Amino acid sequence: MKKVGGKANYGWGSKAGYAGANVLKNYYQDSPATCHSHIDRWKVFDSFLRNCEIRDTQRVSRETIIDFAELLQEDIINGEKSISYTSNILSTTNVVLRLLREDNSMFLSPTLYCGKRDRSRTEPPKGLNRSDVTSAATELNKQGNTRQALIPELAREFGLRKKEACLLNNQQALTEAEQLQTITVTMGTKGGRGRNIPRIISVDKFGLDLLRRAAFAQGDWRCLVPQGLPLYKFMASVNDCWTSVRDTYDLSTIKDLRSCYACDLYQSITHCPPPVLANGLLLAESDKHVEALSTIATALGHGRKQVVYAYVGRGKK
Question: Are 175 and 44 members of one domain?
Fold first, then answer.
């Protein structure tokens, strides 16, 4: 996507909604999922602009954005939108206006206007019982979706992100696991610690069996993504397949399976259930709790221990 010309919206299109989508597609060419999320949230601000009879973002002033932020505040107070969602909407507004204007002069702090987000998990993740995940994967296998079926299993067993599971070289991982009882994750990791430092993840006999099946399905190629198929298309097919069976087995997103892995790891280190499985109580000894947070953060590819609360909950004594 490139500028379409004209004077409106800094040359990105005649209408604000169209211009915002265009500039996002141009900037996030290699991240279609991120682009799609931003476009969805940009529609909220675009709707606000249309209500204000503003079609050209060049007419957007700082006061316009403050008015929008105050409306979001009202939605939070009225219980219509969560702090997390409104913060994301305002963050997207900041991103699009920065890309359109090529400066950051319109930035408005989501924390200041929407409040601090508490990302601590309060509901137990679905998929704690491995057999439920196995059953869902078996159903996908019966449908002929063998490669797609392995992705949630890898996410549950090793705490991998969906992209990491898709790009894992299962042949290499199997060889490493048979020799060292660990696998090293490097491909598909996100920013922060995960992208810069390889993650070493322990493998037990169940993990070995899974890697053997994944290595067989992978064949001579370097990962489970079929040769010649773009990664984003394979990831989309994984989403479609998983969505089609997960409700039948009372499961949720693939990301939720990482929480299950984190809960298992927390319990193996502390010998106590994590807060999210203990009605918000912190049952573990402080030193073991801190050790568990640090270990889980490393295993999941995060740089900060505090992020782990989103997986295992934040407990109180």
Answer: no
Q: Is residue 195 part of a domain?
A: yes
Are 308 and 194 part of one and the same domain? yes
DSSP 41-56: HHHHHHHHHHHTT---
Question: Rounded to an integer, what distance in angstroms lies between the CA atom of residue 212 and that of residue 220?
Answer: 14
Average pLDDT over residues 241-253: 95
Burial class (CB in 10 A: 0-12, 13-18, 19+), 74: exposed
Q: 183: how many CB neighbours lie within 10 A of its CB?
A: 26
CA 15 to chain CA mean position, Å? 30
Q: Which two tokens stand for residue 273?
A: 């259930």
pLDDT (tens digit, 9 = 90+) per residue, 93-126? 999 999 999 999 999 999 888 887 777 888 999 9
Helix (H, G, I), strand (E, B) or coil at 264: helix
**257 near 125, Cβ under 8 Å?**
yes
* SS3 label, residue 208: helix
pTM of the predicted structure, to 2 decimals? 0.70
Q: At 127, is the secondary structure helix, strand, or coil?
A: coil
Q: Are 134 and 153 in contact (CB under 8 A)?
A: yes
Residue 166 shares a structural domain with residue 227: yes
End-to-end CA distance of the chain: 53
66 and 175 inside one domain: no
Q: Quick one: 143 and 49 in the same domain?
A: no
70-80, pLDDT tens digit by residue? 889 888 877 88
Report yes or no on 230 lying in a domain: yes
